[in-house]
Automatic annotation (TrEMBL):
Gene3D superfamilies named among the record's database cross-references: Lipopolysaccharide (LPS) transport protein A like domain
GO cellular component: outer membrane-bounded periplasmic space; plasma membrane
Residues spanning the membrane: 5-23
Taxonomy of the source species: Bacteria, Pseudomonadati, Pseudomonadota, Gammaproteobacteria, Vibrionales
Highest rank taxon of the organism: Bacteria
Species this chain originates from: Paraphotobacterium marinum
A GO molecular-function annotation: lipopolysaccharide transmembrane transporter activity
Keywords associated with the record: Cell inner membrane, Cell membrane, Membrane, Transmembrane, Transmembrane helix
Gene name tied to this protein: lptC
InterPro entries linked to this entry: LipoPS_assembly_LptC-rel (IPR010664), LPS_export_LptC (IPR052363), LptC (IPR026265)
Keyword Heme appears in the UniProt entry: no
Short name of any one Pfam family annotated for the protein: LptC
Record's protein name: LPS export ABC transporter periplasmic protein LptC
Length: 186
């Protein structure tokens, strides 16, 4: 009877031990799958976007990019985005954006963070600076709730928050707008 009890106890211990290790191996495999299948990274990236007609519309350059499949976002470090003028016969920049970090989701919303600078080449708006800015890559709308400074031809405006559209070449300061204007001397 004691031998039988010891034998059953031994089988029970072996069963528990094997079950424990099967669970541990499963958890390790799941962790490896998440780590390697949902994340990717690369350095010195250049991404080009073209219109249906094959014309270059945007170029994104970054020192480093990491993609996280779990939240479906790409993280760009030192991103620089050039938006090209589609109406020009020659390749000509219309807008240029840079920041320390950029986060792009699958819906085409680009969040630029830290030291955001926008340069306009074919517009009265020459430069916009802020700490963070959301840019919709599909409709060219942009928005920030942070302090913003807008430099234009013969003016400098500042305030809290901005919204606008790159295609329409508009930017509106949302609160506490202050401006300095100079007369154009010809």
């Amino acid at each position: 009877m004691i031998k039988k009890f010891c034998l059953y106890f031994f089988y029970l211990v072996i069963f528990i031990f094997l079950g424990y290790w099967a669970i541990q191996i499963s958890l390790i495999n799941e962790s490896i799958k998440k780590e390697y299948s949902s994340k990717a990274s690369a350095s010195n990236i250049v991404l080009n976007e073209y219109t249906k007609n094959g014309k270059l519309s945007k170029t994104l350059v970054a020192d480093h990019v990491t993609y996280n499949g779990e939240n479906k976002k790409s993280f760009y470090y030192d991103p620089k985005l050039s938006v090209w003028n589609l109406n020009s016969k020659e390749l000509q920049k219309e807008w240029y954006m840079s920041s320390d970090v950029g986060i792009l989701d699958n819906d085409g919303l680009l969040l630029l963070r830290k030291n955001v600078v926008l340069l306009g080449y074919d517009s009265q708006l020459k430069k916009i600076t802020t700490n963070s800015l959301q840019y919709n890559t599909k409709n060219s709308n942009f928005y920030s709730s942070d302090f913003v400074k807008i430099y234009g031809q013969n003016f400098i405006n500042s305030g809290t928050g901005v919204k606008g559209n790159f295609n329409n070449k508009t930017a509106t300061i949302l609160e506490d707008a202050k401006g300095t204007y100079e007369q154009n001397i010809n």
